[in-house]
Amino acid sequence: MNNFFKFNTYKNFINKILIPVSAILLLTFFFPKKKVFEYKFYKNEIWNYETFFCPFNFSITKSNKDLKDEIKKIRKNSKILCIRNEQIEKLTKKKLKKILFIKTKKYDYKTYLRIVKKIYKNGYVDNTKFPKEKVISVIYFKKNDNLISVPHKKIYTKNKVNKLIENSFFYNKHAKIILKNIIIPNIIYDENSTKFLIKKKIQSINKIKFSFKKGDKIIGKNEIINQKLFDILYNFKNIYENEKCNKNKEYYGSCIGYFLIISMIFFIFMLYMFYFQNEIFKNNRKLNFLVISIFLLSITTIFTIRYYSNILYIIPFCILPISIRVFFNFHLSFIIHLTIILLLSIVTPNSFEFTFLQTTTGFLVMLTKKNISKMENLFIAVGKIIITYIITFISLHLIRIGTLNSISFYTISLFFISGILTLFVHPLIFLFEKMLNITSDISLLELSDTNKPILRSLSKKAPGTFQHVLTVANLAEEAAVAIGANSLLTKIGGIYHDIGKIKNSIFFTENQYNIENPHEKLTPTESAKIILDHVSYGVELAKKYNLPNTISDFIKTHHGDSLIHYFYRKEQVNSPNFRINKKKFQYSGPKPFSKETTIVMIADSVEAASKSMKNPSYIDLENVVDYIINKQKKENQFSNANITLKEIEKIKMVLKKKLINIYHTRIVYPKQKQ
To answer: Which residues on neighbouring strands pair with residue 156, listed in sequence order?
Structure first.
């Protein structure tokens, strides 16, 4: 543990802890300060705890939907208030008597009067004036400030009146016309009173759905949680957990608890990085990036839970570990994922379900092929995410309830959306590349295009070098596959390692075709300077064309700090009596510091040496590979790379086999007779 806190400088120590401590404090601040309901419950399951009594007075108000439904029901079923005009019957009788006295015999009046009295006894109403949406069964009208109810079927409507008149005066057309003209409705719809009554009923709606006093029984032991009990418990849980910690002791106690548990999780993560990912741990930029990634995904989830908790599963939790795995390794990506899930399990609803779902899905999806630059692999990963989510969710639901009757299809739809959002991993990888200054397989594949401007320029200005780098790239790629190194990175590094030869291309032997060697006109020192400069110029070109630093590393290291022996010895011959400055003939380095850069160095030297041989035999090619690698060993060119002797021997075998295939003897076909 002592080594854990031993850093080179005080500044380095501050950089190591500043971001993690800031993340811990911010998460502590943003984590909701609330009580946690200790009981777990699910609909249609048995309450396995002791009888639960209400610990305080609480009530559950009706939802907006419930209130709207109740208002709609009141409007539909409310009383229809009408005004009954007693004068209309008297006026109708007088009018009838007058008409009959003038136009008909007097004894007919009693017959007409009987019909009028029958119609007006319970009332005559024009129901077309009533609201269309109402189903009217009873009509109410005021009489001496009391509401008198009359069944709708006993009240005459226009259709009923016409039917009565037709049946009573079947053969008397004149009588039918008289009665139809003089009989008018005596019950009139009172719109204002009806609306006032509806308004009064709406105002008197009880907005409380359930109400409990302290000590009231909510649910008993072994009682089945039906829909009503589930709603009560769910609402009680929300009220209980959303109750702010008003007391200072509760608030500060909650803060201390969050701080300690978040600190513990981050401390375990940092210990893991120190012991098992030490190379990344030493790199402050990468370490801080990982911590910030954990923080950002956690804080996004916290705000989602706070404001839109019903869409929690729409967050693509697997997108970060997939991205991390592209740049680093499986173990680190899984630990990152597990760290995030542990942090969020503190605050997510149904934490067991959430933790189990995310851990299972994350672990399985990270077993997908690392190369997600291929859309096929990415779609396979997304398919795994969706299928694993759904199967795990259904399994947990069956364990709890035993049937699929009440399964949430809304949650399943969120799993689909979450899987689709994971497709946006490519833009996230691009962002990570810019932030970390590291290269993914996606960018490497783009760099493999030989129509890139820098490679087109190399092909035109130094065609021999262009063929050389392609051969080196193929040799290096095979060697990388043999020892389990990053073959794609090695190949791309091999393609770009000699771009510095664009400048002064004719001074390099592979480009000297049918021309005089320009070095003949220069001193060894001048020639060496031109040769040495192709490394520094290559680095300049890499910056100009925005090549990643990982590719620039191949340019810097493909000669290590080796000596240009040819010109150095030539200078010794030309100036035997002078002390020669060896640095003028030596590459500035650095030496290769990874397996990939080491492979390119070896492949570059071996390919160049094999090209200088005329008609090499199998033995010659094997000897040249042994000679080059042994020479580089003696010069300690591999001292900074994490490569083993066993891996170097594998590289030897691959290079020998590849060179033999390249320089194999062709069959001489006999000339055809003319």
So the answer is: 124
Query: Could you tell me which of 433, 411, 489, 498 has the C-alpha nearest to residue 463?
Result: 498
Residues above pLDDT 90, as percent of the chain: 33
pTM value surpassing 0.85:
no
Of 18, 15, 34, 24, which Cα lies nearest the Cα of 298? Answer: 24
The pLDDT score that the predictor gives to residue 372 is 65
Least confident of 109-113, 178-182, 484-488: 109-113
Residues forming a β-bridge with 125: 187
Which residues lie below 8 Å from residue 288, measured CB to CB, with a gap of 6+? 15, 19
Residue corresponding to tokens 């989602």: 304
Distance CA 561, CA 590 (A): 6
| Chain Cα centroid distance, residue 511 | 51
What gap in Å lies between CA 21 and CA 673, rounded to an integer? 87
Grade residue 106 by pLDDT with cuts at 50, 70 and 90: very low
Residue 206 and residue 74 in contact, taking contact as beta carbons nearer than 8 Å: no
Give me the DSSP letters along 638-649.
TTTS---HHHHH
- Distance (Å, rounded) from C-alpha 549 to C-alpha 535? 14
Cα 647 versus chain centre, distance:
40
Query: How far is the C-alpha of 524 from the C-alpha of 585, rounded, in Å?
Result: 9
- In whole angstroms, what is the distance from residue 32 CA to residue 259 CA? 12
Q: Are 59 and 212 in contact (CB under 8 A)?
A: yes
Question: Residues 516-561: pLDDT tens digits?
Answer: 888 888 888 999 999 999 999 999 999 999 898 889 999 999 999 9
Interatomic CA distance for residues 342 and 456, integer angstroms: 51
Q: Is the dihedral of CA 534, 538, 544, 545 positive or negative?
A: positive
Which two structure tokens, joined as six digits, stand for 418? Answer: 């979450």
Give residue 583's Cα distance to chain centre.
54
Max distance between CA atoms of the chain, in angstroms, equals 163
Please report where in the chains the tokens 């993560």 appear, as a residue.
Answer: 269
Query: Please, which residues bridge with residue 402 across strands?
Result: none
Quote the pLDDT of residue 157: 85
